[in-house]
Amino acid sequence: MKRPDPVAVGTIVWLGSEVMFFAGLFAIYFTLRSTSPDLWADRTEILNVPFAFVNTVILVLSSVTCQMGVFAAERMQPYNDPTQKGWKRIGMVPWYWATFFMGAVFVSGQVWEYAQLVAEGMPYGADSYSAAFFLTTGFHAMHVTGGLIAFLFTIGRAYAVKKFTHKEATTAIVVSYYWHFVDVVWIALFAVIYFLK
To answer: Which of 73, 80, 89, 75 is nearest to 168 (CA)?
Structure first.
């Protein structure tokens, strides 16, 4: 019987603790919301839902490119292979660069959104809504940034080794677990913050 990879198991356990962390942030958000419904109604009016939706689509698409990179890593194919056909020609490294780029666009979009909200009179700590908004989305942005750093390490590792082995493939797969987790958390945050007004 094949034993599960300890790195993958450890990552899944760690992500379980991250679920609890974000559950706490959701609890803060809902508690503050229930105590100040009028404030919530006023503040949600200034949110730029179409912009946030486009930014969300970019993050969701980055999960697709990430998974394509995982498929390439499982084929032990770090770089493009002209002998393959279709999307199988593309190696893990190009897929992960695409994922990194889209993740960076997402974080940049969040920074731009923060600047717009501050300009419209909603700085961090102005009231309970702004505190909850910046706390939840800010912690998520920090997690995305951590994922971007992990992609750079994974790509760098692929360049550094002479032969792409099971270790490098496992690294790529574990990073994808984290990235998909960050993506799912954002979909939940997006639904709660931008649609449950």
So the answer is: 73
